[in-house]
Amino acid sequence: MIPPDINPSTTLNAYIRDYALAKGTKYMCQEGGCGACIVTVKRINSATQKQETFGVNSCLVPVYSCHGWSIITIEGIGNRRNGFHKVQLTLAGFNGTQCGYCSPGMVMNMFSLLNSGKNITMKDVENSFGSNICRCTGYRSILDAFKSLASDATPELKRKCADIEDLYKEGKICPKTNEGCNNTCHKLYNKNNDNLLSDISNISIKMIFNDNTKWFRVTTIKEIYEVFETTDTSTKYMLLAGHTSNGVYRIGHIDIYIDINAVSDLHTYTVDPDTGNLILGANVSLTRAITIFKNMASEKPDKYAYLEQLANHIELVANVPVRNIGTLAGNLSIKYNNRNFPSDIFIILEAVKTKLTIGHITGIVYEYSLQGYLQLDMYQRLIINIILPPYDSSYVYGSYKIMQRAQNTHADVNSAFLVKVNKNDKFRVLETPNIVFGGINTNFIHATNTETYLNGKQLLNISVLKEACTILKSEVKPDSINAETSPLYRQSLAVNLFYKFILSLSPDNVSTKYKSGGTLLERPLSSGKQDFQTEKLIWPITKPIPKLEAFLQCSGEAEFVNDIPAVQNQLYAAVVLTRTGPGLLDNIDTSLIKNMPGVVKFLSAKDIPGKNIIISYTQVEIEELFAEKEIKFSGQPVGVVIATTQQIANVAAERVVVKVNNQQKPVLDLREVAQSGDKNRISIGATKPATTKKTDIKLKLNGSLLVGSQYHYTMETHTCFCIPTEDGIDVFSATQDLHMMQNNVAAVLAVPLNSVFVRTKRVGGGYGAKLIRSALVTSACALASNNLKVPVRSVMTMESNMEAIGKRFPMYGQYEIAINEKGVIQYANLNTYSNMGKFFNDTICKSLTYFGPVLYEDNVWDYKCYAARLDIPSNTYCRSPGSTEIIALNEYIMEHIAHEIKQDPVSIRLANIKQEHYSVISTLIADLKKNSDFDERKTAVDTFNNKNRWKKRGITLVPMCYAYDINMKYSVLLSVYAGDGTIALTHGGVEIGQGINTKVVQACAYTLGIDMNMIRVTSTNTITAPNNSGTGGSVASDSVTIAVIECCKILLQRLDPIKKKYPNLNWKDLINKADAEFVDLCCEYMYSPIVIPRKYNIYGVVVTEVEIDLLTGQHQIVRVDLLEDAGQSISPLVDIGQVEGAFVMGLGYYLNEKLIYDSNTGNLLTNRSWNYTPPGAKDIPIDFRVYFRRDVPNHLGILRSKATGEPPLCLSVSVVFAIRNALASGRKDATGKDEWFEINLPYTPENILLSAETTIEQFSL
Fold this sequence. Notes:
Layout: H1 12-19, E1 38-44, E2 51-57, E3 70-72, H2 86-93, H3 103-114, H4 122-128, H5 140-147, H6 155-171, E4 205-208, E5 214-217, H7 221-228, E6 237-240, E7 256-259, E8 269-271, E9 278-281, H8 286-299, H9 301-304, H10 306-314, H11 320-325, H12 328-337, H13 344-351, E10 355-360, E11 365-369, H14 370-375, E12 381-388, E13 395-403, E14 411-422, E15 428-429, E16 434-438, H15 448-454, H16 462-475, H17 487-505, H18 512-515, E17 527-531, H19 550-554, E18 571-577, E19 583-589, E20 599-604, E21 630-631, E22 637-643, H20 646-655, E23 657-661, H21 670-676, E24 682-688, E25 699-707, E26 719-725, E27 728-733, H22 738-749, E28 756-760, H23 775-788, E29 792-795, H24 798-804, E30 811-819, E31 825-835, H25 845-851, E32 861-868, H26 883-900, H27 905-912, H28 915-932, H29 934-947, E33 951-966, E34 970-976, E35 983-987, H30 996-1008, E36 1015-1017, E37 1020-1021, H31 1036-1061, H32 1067-1076, E38 1082-1087, E39 1094-1109, E40 1115-1124, H33 1132-1151, E41 1183-1188, H34 1207-1211, H35 1214-1231, H36 1245-1250
Parallel strand pairs: 5-7, 6-7, 17-41, 18-29, 27-28, 31-32, 35-36, 40-41
Antiparallel strand pairs: 1-2, 1-3, 4-5, 8-9, 9-12, 10-11, 10-12, 13-14, 14-15, 14-16, 18-22, 19-21, 19-23, 20-22, 24-32, 25-30, 26-27, 26-29, 28-37, 30-31, 33-39, 34-35, 34-38, 39-40
Helix pairs in contact: 2-5, 2-6, 8-10, 15-16, 16-17, 22-23, 25-26, 26-27, 30-31
């Protein structure tokens, strides 16, 4: 039962978390784009009256639409008390978690699949996880875990899955029997005992709420019309089925909700025996439509073969949980209400001449075309049926969707073609064809001029083809409304897709060289391989185990800040941001929220009792927490709203009007700033001068490279919870730097540091985002709590998180290089410009000069690194900061040299490597060449490119040397308990998914010689770990592990006299004896780089092979072989996960992720999961192989290991050069020239397509 005071806009996710208090289900984007919120639904299908089971995004589903549903959350399938479900065990056992925030959603998506009643294959698994984003793992381990549960899982995967279950049984002690787990009491969820509430699933409901909002649940079309009768033109009503449109366009206030899910007539389908038309109920879900279309195509291919292609296209729409509840009519309605929406459903149905039956309140039903529907006034009207005609074999159909990644994003351009032809006469067109495009402009649907021209023409006539493409190009005129892609790209893509369709018609009549252009890139099932050493004699060191928290993460029991239970009188806060800048702050108008129910207070800069700053002790420039007089950039905070719920606070924050005078056009282009020489915006940040300049000069090269920014995409947005206490304030912050937060809060509140107690158990993804920049929400939340003297919680929305918080530092590099005839650099002058954002508080320039000169002979390299000021939020550290950008520039230079003197890039790299690295790097290259079959594959790539005009492959080999230096300090407190000898540890590092706690426990158990189960790690806090460094740069795990070992040594030294006195005692008895003799069993140690300096090099080499489609710009990564120098890994599975996750994050940086700002206001336009696209599960390498270097213990490292969290990201630049190689082949085919070219990063489909130099004149058959 749902309490009557819950607003009808309340989502299932909000109800589960805030009312049912089941915190295992997470959320992030709140638009169905990230998968963190997935739960399982069981309900009776309105049409079939049969039970169906599927996953849904709980953030999209209104809780009142769940009437008659059985909802299963992560808590309902397994936990540590009653036993874990097989899905949970498998994901944890395959090391498929890191930060763990996405894990419950992953588990529930797979649980839903397995309980759907279908025979789930490995292909089904890979196709079903476009719904779930994971920034940490790189997906490979997740896919392997869930594919092991598929019906066609490989023997190796099945064996590993069985081993995991056995290990769990051996290690788990039953709380009931005190014996090993036999897996018999795990009955939390039993599919035979579902309470589906079927007796009430078909009843009508009417609810009226306090604000006069109404909710109707109807069961017949007649009832819908009866509700219509209660409305007038001023009433805003909504027909509600899946409510998935809220994931595209935010839906505001609704007066009347009409839940039509129970109307069985809208769910049915039939075939008209007279016309052969397939008649679908408007409320048929996209998932069910796929099934219907595939069945019809299989059963009656003579009439409905084209439906197979429609089904395949719909599988590219959104993701599985969205398709499970999103309906055909619902998607068309989004198009109706938002004409610029690139609806795939509209495009494919329009192409096949679909009709709609639309009923009116009067009871009259008319039939309309889709274009007629768009012109119709739909007030008090209802789509009832969708009618698809049959087509015989004389009709050819094709459709395409080109998007920024493989799954779960909208189309840049989509298209569909239906043509009646005479196949025996070069596919002569027998009637006016349908040529339909989306994503062009608001009004463009049909290419009518091209349709008219083609009637009666032969499609396989080259002159007809070129003329048709020319006409098409002239009538396709994209607008600039879609800021994500350029009009030129969308125009070129439309023409190319038509050409691709023609090539697909009769492959046998197309020459071999051009044939590949007729298909899209075909991705086979992915696979992975991991090769590492383990030494059983020293276990648990080197033992390949999952993260300690993995099982709790997979059961939703791992607690994040926003999972901390609510307390009495708790309120919620949301930061108010500007939407324009720069300019002068004129006024903050809060009139729209003064009488808004639930709003408690608004605070601004004048309410800050202490310093109005966002950064305290590391501050270089004053950076205000809330703007006082001047607005520096769009997204700048001006205050904070406090309300009774987070939803109310978020809405209120959007309603605050920030008035800005004297607005200036923001400066947003780093390249323009660098070239301007404006000293007000540019300052020297660091230099590394050359010590010599050689004179054997054969050639001089000049060039530049712009590497962009990257949103961290933490699955947990910035979050804080503050509670006033008698001693001051308790701060629970999702931060990587507790000491920084403590200082910031104390400065803002004007209180001593010892009154601010900061605690963090874990963070749902960090990557540097939560080092300094978590100060915004932490300080604002603390201010609100202190002002009102009540607990306050604040969780930033994804939009506000992206708009207010800085991202990776973009870098523009210019170079002048002189080389000799062998490609050896004689001198290199590099000027780099880093986009710092508005303030210079987070510095990056010194990192560039630190990491830049590491691998190559640096005495001839001259680095000048400038900081540049642009009108955006201050950028901040992002995984492998500085090293990623400067290594990319250095390797880009090596590629440029190799191209100009026509030498192998590997030989150029070896010719310029420092002698101290030559032996290691050359050995790694030789080993990886052999393991990856590099030379043979390179030959195969060349052969492929010679044979194919429109698809190209590229392969490259890139080495890396990462200079690692532990220069931070971390404390450890180790407590041993008399009675049972168990140990509790707390340390100054933060568990952000990197496995710090796992390595710490392994090291502790190894040093003390006890079982890992005896050791627990508790929350990090500022009392036991004061003044500690932030967790970042891959140094915290090593530093804390050192400190733990030192603590253990102190403890052993104290225990030594007891051991000598009682030599045969076991650990438990030893501790009891020590306690009895007053031995101090609490040890503390702080790691300091002064006491124990640690500095060494981390080596790596990668071979990356790609394939690109020159006609669409799409790419896929065929294979990656990555050889990493991890020393003797303390925890191999953890380190493998770090390598894979870092590399895939780098792939996103170079291929998918693009930040776009409004040029007039500076407002970030790509601020949602809808338009910012990190890699998904099908964007990772198809064949992903990771090898750890063998037999090379690192004697300078901790327990002979090396860090793995950041260096692999630097290797991902290899994908850039692989794509460049593929593109170079295409450009040479196009122009006959082999010239060095510059192409903007990231290598999106747009940049690849526009760099291919393709023209209509090159089209052939």
